[in-house]
Amino acid sequence: MNFFKNSFRSVGESLGLKVELFEDRLVVCAPMWKRALSTDSTFCDALVACGILTQKQMEHAARRYRLGASKSRGVIFWQIDHEERIHNGKIMYYRDDCHRDKEHKPTWVSYLLQKRHRFPDNPPCSHTLFGLHLLPSNSPLGPGPFRRFSQKLTSGARPRCAVVEAEKTAVILSEMYPQYLWLATGGLGETQPEKFRPLRGCEVILFPDTDPDGIAFKRWTDAAAEVNRQLWWEGCPKICVSDLLERCATQEQKRRKIDLADFYLETVCQTD
């Protein structure tokens, strides 16, 4: 393990990165995300081309969530925690209609770094909620949009966090409903209790995707109950699970397994 730590840090220093082992898992400290910060991705292009966000909204959301871009124009959704540690980055590709390009499988930045530099005995990389860096924390962010957003979010009230599955959904809805801090798990099963520990003291509501059998709703309801039972959650507001999609989505929408952003774009926007 010592050999690995020294090798990884040596490579990190040559790349201008600070690499640490946090709870026996790899994390990378800033400024790694700054090097890839960009709106030159298929995702950002599609958001504007489809009329989902204006150019100004897209750029605002990209800065807030620190979106990056790979050389092949995949978007990088960085997983940065509330103490500015980068746990990983997910590279994804989108079609012109802003739906995921399934011909390109998602790739993790950690995998590419490990593959490129051939690290031995790789420890697993940790994962955290997408958007967690926007949570008010003890880490000084200094002046700028991130600190101003945190101050606005918490002025006179508990932070209100809305958790969805897809990073895309969090980015879109952050511009539609800025009164919430939009976070994403990055997957149906990525709801391990420890990921919610930084949200202690916040008002949290989960918005699971929908499906014909209500599987996602049940799994997230069980996950919320598990977090609510944790000793470290004692005294915090009870995590709620929204049944909006279960009540309001059509059977055709449930068959397509839409999420909250899909519902907003297909239903709310159509009636405005």
What does this structure look like?
The protein has 272 residues and is α/β, with parallel strands linked by helices. Helices cover 38% and strands 16% of the residues. The N and C termini lie far apart (58 Å).
| N→C terminal distance | 58 Å
Number of strands: 10
The largest sheet is:
6 strands, antiparallel
What is the H/E string?
HEEHHHEEEEHHEHEEHEHHH
Structure annotation, total helices = 11
How would you describe the shape? globular
Range of strand content: 15-25%
Helix content: 25-40%
Rg is: 19 Å
| Overall pLDDT metric | 81
List unreliable stretches of 5+ residues.
1-8, 138-156
**Structural class by secondary-structure content:** alpha/beta
Task: Describe the structure concisely.
With 272 residues, the chain is of the alpha/beta class. It contains eleven helices and ten strands.
Set down the secondary structure blueprint:
Elements: H1 2-14, E1 18-22, E2 25-29, H2 32-36, H3 42-49, H4 55-65, E3 68-69, E4 75-80, E5 85-92, E6 107-108, H5 109-117, H6 145-154, E7 160-164, H7 167-176, E8 181-184, E9 203-206, H8 215-229, E10 240-241, H9 244-248, H10 251-255, H11 260-271
Parallel strand pairs: 7-8, 7-9, 9-10
Antiparallel strand pairs: 1-2, 2-5, 3-4, 4-5, 5-6
